[in-house]
Write a structure and sequence with these properties.
The chain is elongated, with a radius of gyration of 26 Å. It has four helices and twelve strands; from the N terminus they run αββββββββββββααα. It has 230 residues and is α+β, with helices and mostly antiparallel strands. The strands form two sheets. Strands 2, 4, 6, 7, 9, 10 and 12 form a seven-stranded mixed beta sheet that branches. Strands 5-8-3-1-11 form a five-stranded mixed beta sheet, with no helix packed on it. It binds calcium ion (2 copies). The site of one calcium ion has 8 residues, from α4. The site of one calcium ion (CA) has 8 residues, from α2.
Length: 230
């Protein structure tokens, strides 16, 4: 073999040896916690942890840490898309806590929501960013059914508590408190319309924990300029 052939051979060998890395770098499994924004005063927040680029896993385990000064762990649920609840285990009495799943049968190959964690925000929780940190655990990691290690990256999430910019009485969120909002509340009160929990909070203008005809009437009076505040 002459020198030119050898150099071509080496170059081709080098390119081939680099290829799997180039491909796997793009397709590394990712475990990511969501970043969720809520207005200050919110009681409860759910943060989903999702998996992307899943090459097929039978075991997974990592740690989750949160700010226990302002957050209290409430519950976790699985979507069932990847691992079921009975395949998943966690001891949430600790912070950080280990979140792990295991199946003895076939690889799980789905992507999407893995688990959803629900936290309660303490009443004194100020405006700010509260990280949901994912980290490796010494006895964790990800493996497929053949006990081969699966590489993955962890992406932190957060709960961002923002100023509450919702305008009291503006049920349809169009920036105006008017007869239309009053009518929506009247319809809701009569059982003719649904309101989201956020809309109900905005609709309860007299803050008595009920959304009813009284709120509708107050919004109407405000809209007509008969009262200047609720
Ligand atoms: Ca409105
Ligand atoms: Ca009310």
């Amino acid at each position: 073999m002459n020198k030119k052939l050898i150099s071509i051979f080496l170059m081709v060998a080098m390119i081939i040896s680099c290829l799997p890395f180039a491909v796997s770098a793009d397709k590394t499994m990712e475990i990511k916690a969501d970043t969720v924004e809520v207005p200050v005063g919110t009681n409860e927040v759910s943060v989903a942890i999702s998996i992307a680029n899943n090459p097929g896993i039978a075991t997974i385990g990592f740690q989750v840490a949160y700010d226990s000064q302002y957050l209290t762990f409430k519950e976790w649920t699985t979507s069932g898309k990847i691992f079921s609840a009975s395949e998943t285990d966690t001891n949430t009495a600790k912070n950080p806590f280990l979140l792990s799943s295991y199946t003895g049968s076939a690889n799980k190959t789905a992507n999407g929501e893995y688990v959803t964690l629900t936290f309660e925000l303490k009443p004194n929780c100020p405006i700010g960013k509260y990280d949901i940190e994912l980290s490796e655990y010494i006895l964790g990691g990800a493996y497929n059914i053949d006990e081969q290690e699966v590489e993955y990256t962890l992406v932190n999430g957060a709960i961002i508590v923002k100023e509450n910019t919702a305008l009291l009485g503006d049920v349809n969120d169009d920036g105006e408190v008017d007869e239309l909002d009053s009518a929506i509340v009247a319809r809701y009160s009569a059982g003719l319309a649904d309101l989201t929990s956020k809309q109900q909070a905005v609709a309860d203008v007299n803050n008595d924990s009920e959304v009813d005809e009284l709120d509708s009437a107050l919004i109407s009076r405000y809209s007509a300029g008969l009262i200047s505040h609720f």
